[in-house]
């Protein structure tokens, strides 16, 4: 009788131990699944606000028949682009900004001022702190004139534009009008010479 009672108690103890082990394993698996789901949700949240900056030019004639040249900065991504840097080089020489680029192509400030009629130049700030909403664009510079737009169109082939922009989560990317696509970078500090990093979304560099 005592032996039967001992076996019953032993069975109950073993069953309780197994139940505790199973409960622990289930808890660990549930925690791991929850962590993986949280990581997926965070990655999705970051991806859902990722910008995609590109530079496009357009040229032609206005409704009045006057030639124009325009540089647009587009954000074709899913979220706002926080511009950290915008730089222009013409013939491998840095220029101060897009308006200065127009003056340099015209032959310098004096040559630009001597043009008749005076070119109509409109430009928007595209520097550090500018935010371009998803699906929106900024006109970096637009020039309307009888002859200068053609010179700008030809000069664009010798012009390099570099932009570094980040998402609100701090995922940064650099792009240049000299090559397609963009590259992920750790930050926009020293981005021109920085090595590209693996995309945080597993899509390569």
General description of the model:
The chain has 205 residues and is of the alpha+beta class. It has 4 helices and 10 strands, in the order H-E-E-E-E-H-H-E-E-E-H-E-E-E. A hairpin with a 5-residue loop joins strand 8 and strand 9 (172-176). The longest helix is centred in the N-terminal third of the chain and has 46 residues, at 2-47. The chain is rod-shaped and about 110 Å long. The termini are far apart. The mean pLDDT is 86.
Identify the notable features of this structure and list them briefly:
single chain, alpha+beta, six-stranded antiparallel β-sheet, 4 helices, 10 strands, 34% helix, rod-shaped
Question: Would you summarize the structure shown here?
Answer:
With 205 residues, the chain is an alpha+beta fold. Helix content is 34%, strand content 30%.
């Amino acid at each position: 009788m005592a032996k039967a009672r001992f076996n019953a108690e032993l069975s109950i103890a073993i069953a309780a131990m197994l139940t505790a082990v199973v409960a622990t394993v289930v808890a660990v698996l549930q925690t791991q699944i929850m962590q993986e789901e949280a990581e997926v949700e965070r990655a999705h949240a970051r991806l859902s606000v990722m910008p995609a900056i590109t530079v496009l030019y357009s040229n032609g004639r206005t409704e009045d028949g006057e030639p124009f040249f325009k540089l647009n900065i587009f954000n074709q991504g899913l979220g706002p682009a926080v511009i950290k840097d915008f730089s222009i080089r013409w013939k491998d020489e840095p220029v101060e900004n897009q308006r200065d680029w127009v003056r340099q192509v015209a032959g310098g400030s004096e040559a630009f001022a001597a043009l008749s009629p005076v070119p109509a130049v409109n430009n928007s700030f595209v520097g550090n702190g500018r935010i371009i909403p998803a699906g929106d664009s900024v006109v970096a510079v637009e020039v309307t004139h009888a002859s200068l737009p053609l010179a700008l169109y030809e000069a664009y082939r010798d012009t390099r534009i570099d932009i570094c922009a980040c998402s609100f989560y701090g995922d940064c990317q650099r792009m240049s009008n000299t090559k397609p696509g963009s590259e992920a970078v750790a930050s926009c500090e020293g981005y021109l010479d920085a090595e590209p990093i693996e995309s945080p979304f597993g899509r390569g560099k």
